[in-house]
Amino acid sequence: MKFYYKAPLSRERLDKIKILAFDMDDTLLDARGKLSAGNREALERAMEKGYHVVIASGRVWSALPKDVLAVPGIQYAITSNGARIRDVHAGKVLYEDLLGTEAVEACYPWMRDPEVMLEIFYDDEVVADRWCMEHLEQFGRVTPKAQEYVLTTRTPVDDLWQRIEDNKARIENINLIFGDDEKRRRYLAEIKAQVPLVTAVSSTPVNIELGGVTTSKANALDVLAKLLGCGKENIMAFGDSTNDEQMLRHAGIGVAMGNAVPELLDIADYIAPTHDDDGVAYALENLLGI
Fold first, then answer.
1. pLDDT > 70: what percent of the chain?
2. Using CA atoms, how far apart are residues 236 and 253, in angstroms rounded to an integer?
3. In what order do the strands lie in the sheet with 171-178?
4. Long-range contacts of 248-257 (CB under 8 A, 24+ apart)
5. Which pLDDT does position 142 carry in this prediction?
């Protein structure tokens, strides 16, 4: 088991935690995209002790893992990098922060590149161009796991740009997928510099995720915390990628997985074992006695 240590956290900070927010892929889920028995049992023990367990994912609602949603007691899900908060039990959206028409149109120059695969998140679903979904290896999705995930969570369409035009006021997130990493890095820098109306982050080495200018897991988590009568000091957040950075910075305690990108390892309050070593369960046991 490989992981890092940081300075011990004070009991005063740990005792304030009431909300546990978890990124999904490569954090709560293992390399196969599954919820391990160890992590599931840790979530169940946490809820038995009265903690609020919150999903905080870049995934759209329809793509959330069924084995996580099946864990009794999980009531809240933050999806599309903070574009929506859903009450899982009531089946209703509590909050949304969408891109808006002007922001979507400002991204058209990069979205129209034929060498970039587009995924459009709206109304809790994801649509993508049919041809691109039939040629995923050209867009950096070469592993069986990555291809299976796309094929089971995206709806192929022949008229993607018509879908965009018809629904651009309701878009939660735009995902740009690249086979060329140099172009991805260049586009990311250009969008950040030229489009102040959006937030641009990455959750995988092949993508750029575009959300609204105020859209983030951190902002959504802050809204949910207030609904629950809590503040940021009551939040412990877990993540692995750059789209988790604001959330970890905002939380009272930020936990990075041992497999996290260097940016998160630098700013985290605690670094847990990897997602394949039940790092979530380990952190909950060693920090909160769960």
1. 98
2. 5
3. 155-157, 125-129, 116-122, 171-178, 207-212, 198-201
4. 249/218, 250/218, 250/221, 250/222, 251/21, 251/218, 251/221, 252/13, 252/16, 252/17, 253/9, 253/13, 253/14, 253/17, 253/287, 255/283, 255/287, 257/26, 257/27
5. 87
Mean pLDDT of 111-139: 95
Residue 5 lies in a domain: no
Using a 10 angstrom Cβ sphere, with 0-12 exposed, 13-18 middle and 19 or more buried, the burial of residue 174 is buried
pLDDT beyond 50 at 1? no
d(CA 290, CA 280): 11
In total, how many domains does the chain have?
2
CATH code, domain with 114:
3.30.1240.10
Model confidence pTM above 0.85: yes
Token readout for 187 is: 């586009």
